Amino acid sequence: MSLALHIRPASVTDAGVLAALAERTFVETFAAENRPEDLAIHVARSYGIEIQARELADPDVTYLIAEADGTPAGYALVRGGGAPSCVTGAAPVQIQRFYVDRPWLGTGVARALMVACEEEARRRGGRTLWLGVWERNARAIRFYEKAGFKDVGAQAFHVGADAQTDRVLARDLD
């Protein structure tokens, strides 16, 4: 059976779909290894229709939605702007969020979504693509390494009151 996959830029009208998908995928990915109270704080600060609507209205932000057979299967948030000092490549663009919904893991959605992120970064004039990934998320790290990313440093990431370490990964787009 072939998968009908479509990746498109999100619009403000997608805020509700994105908020629900973002919250669900974050919780499913990280609930087992975080305190419930920290997870609740992070979710309240990061996801909700109003929050995603504000992000969607920001010209430095592009949300990409992957739809598989018409169902939201994953999303990415690509952002222009600064990068940590360990990212030394020219014209950096960040993948701030990258999630595939659990039923679609292993189906090719992630690879197609990554290609769309690369295209969006190039459209923005980017020559370096970078992201942060929790040092304990081995599955994601393996995926990013297969996509050509290299570990270039570390940065803090807070889930509620818990300060965690993200590995910073980067790759050239040239």
How much of the sequence lies in strands comes to 25-35%
Order of helices and strands: EHHHEEEHEHEE
Straight-line distance between termini: 35 Å
User: Which runs of at least 5 residues are low in confidence (pLDDT < 50)?
Assistant: none
The helix tally amounts to 5
What is the SS-derived class?
alpha+beta
Tell me the CATH topology: Aminopeptidase
Radius of gyration: 15 Å
Binned, the helix content reads 25-40%
Give the strand line-up of the largest sheet.
1-2-3-4-5-7-6
Can you walk through the features of this model?
- With 174 residues, this protein is α+β, with helices and mostly antiparallel strands.
- It has a single domain (5-172), classed as Gcn5-related N-acetyltransferase (GNAT) (Aminopeptidase), CATH 3.40.630.
- 34% of the residues lie in helices and 34% in strands.
- It has helices at residues 15-30, 36-46, 49-57, 109-123, 138-146, and strands spanning 5-9, 61-68, 71-79, 92-100, 128-134, 150-159, 162-172.
- Strands 1-2-3-4-5-7-6 form a seven-stranded mixed sheet, sandwiched between helices.
- The protein is globular.
- The mean pLDDT is 96.
